[in-house]
Amino acid sequence: MKAVEHLEAIGKPPADCVQTPLGTMIQLKNPHDDRLQKRLADFLTDVPIPRAVNGTEALCLGTNIGSVRKQNEDRALIIRASYSTAPERNFVLGVVSDGIGGLSRGEEASTLAVSEFCSRVVRQSRLSPEARLRFAAEMANVAVFSLLKGKGGATLSAVLIAKGNVIGVNVGDSRIYGISPRRQSVQLTKDDTLASYLGRRDGKDMGSDVKGLVQFVGMGNDFDPHIITTNERDSESILITSDGVHDAPSEAIAQITQISRSNLDLVQRLLSLSGILGGRDNATALVIPTEFNPGTASDEGVTIACTSSFDSLEIWIPKLGNTFAESDDALEKQPEKEKNPAANVNSKGRKNATHYRQRKLALRKKKESNEAKLPLDEDPPSLSISFPDKRKS
User: Fold this and answer.
1) What is the pLDDT of residues 337-354, one digit of tens each?
2) How far is it, in rounded angstroms, from Cα 82 to Cα 302?
3) How far apart are CA 25 and CA 28, in angstroms?
4) Quick check: helix, strand or coil at residue 389?
5) By C-alpha distance, which of 44, 38, 60, 129 is closest to 91?
6) Cβ(223)–Cβ(141) under 8 Å?
7) Check: CATH 3.60.40.10 for 35-177+186-289?
8) Is 49 helix (H, G, I), strand (E, B) or coil?
9) Distance (Å, whole) CA 167 – CA 106
10) Which among 47, 128, 242, 273 is least surrounded, fewest beta carbons within 10 Å?
11) Would the pTM count as exceeding 0.85?
12) pLDDT recorded at residue 98
């Protein structure tokens, strides 16, 4: 368990705990054996073609490798979670991450950042939206720092739509825009760059140190994700972009947003604009409507529909008795419904009917909970401990 070994070396927490950079420590079961995170990472790893757009007219995302970069270090994912017996818990999550150019293993950093972040959002359904996003971002930072030891990292911008709330989190210079009913775009985030902090939007004619990131996922200490809020009246849709898109002139982005016939048309036009301007960086855009309904799960349990720029995948988490399957082991063995055979991650679940019957009988003997519990729900952090500063050692 690399993260625990690293934290023990600098702070000696218990062997089964992971400490977040904001000083909280959480006890986890198999913190580096998260099957949902691994499935999402596998799903995001394959980038088969230079450019792709996926989704519907309203909810969609796309990416373009550009003309200069040899690999695409951007990762983006839309998750729609539908609860069969508790539709009020449904949510939609959109996230974009950009591996930092110039640092090592950018594609690994962005893949881990997105998969870890999304896994934590799913697992922490009992927290408030703000706390849920902040904690998920903190854990993504811990995971990437554990892997790359600060020598690599990624940006992270995400929006969670649940129970009428539209809440976002931002770290780095990927951006979140609100799109009004009149198709006017408003930047909701502030870039984590020295240029932005000094009041210079573009950072041109300024040294590389000034244009560099102030913080990113994987930096370790001093990590402080920004939480943003908007509402359905001000923002009809949410647009999330990597810098390969919004490095274009802001006037051009505003005009394209205005004339686009749909969100899908907007994504396609933004990617085309990036290419017309030279395609000097990977470009990714994601749009989700603020009033989008994930729909009702067709099977008893929770259905998690995942959409990347290249593919789609559904994961079904069954309900056993009066609670959802409780462990990572149950998630590993449950069947998945796929839209594309290439998206299959694990097909062994259909052979575990006996396992489910045994689990159901065991659960009946337990005290029934008042509310159905998501299979990977964790208890929120309960112990506050300062994160040691290695520079003082």
Assistant:
1) 333 333 333 333 333 444
2) 6
3) 10
4) coil
5) 129
6) yes
7) yes
8) coil
9) 27
10) 128
11) no
12) 96
**Residues contacting residue 184 through CB under 8 Å, at least 6 positions apart:** 254, 257, 258
Tens of pLDDT along the chain (393 residues) come to: 222 222 222 233 333 344 444 444 444 444 445 889 999 999 999 889 999 999 999 999 999 999 999 999 999 999 999 988 888 889 999 999 999 976 668 999 999 999 999 999 998 888 999 999 999 999 999 999 999 998 899 999 999 999 889 999 999 999 999 999 999 999 999 999 887 777 655 444 444 333 488 999 999 999 999 999 987 778 999 999 999 999 999 999 999 999 999 999 999 999 999 999 999 999 999 999 999 878 777 677 889 999 999 999 999 877 644 555 434 444 433 334 333 333 333 333 333 444 444 554 454 444 333 334 445 555 554 433 344 454 444
Instruction: Locate the domains of the chain by residue range.
Output: 1-33, 35-177+186-289
Contact 135, 380 (CB under 8 A): yes
Distance CA 264, CA 79 (A): 17
Q: 204-217, pLDDT tens digit by residue?
A: 444 433 348 899 99
Query: What's the one-letter identity of residue 237?
Result: S
Beta-bridge partner residues of 93: 79, 160
User: Edge-to-edge, what's the strand order for the sheet holding 383-384?
Assistant: 17-19, 24-27, 383-384
Residue type, 342: A
- Measured CA to CA, the distance from residue 71 to residue 281 in angstroms comes to 10
Would you say 68 and 150 are in contact if contact means Cβ atoms under 8 Å apart? Answer: no
- Torsions phi, psi for 125 (to 5 deg): -70, -15
Q: How far is CA 345 from CA 68, 132, 330, 336, in A?
A: 32, 26, 15, 8
- Provide the β-strand partners of residue 383: 25
Tell me the H-state helices in the chain. Answer: 2-10, 35-45, 106-123, 129-148, 194-197, 208-211, 243-246, 250-259, 263-276, 328-333, 353-364
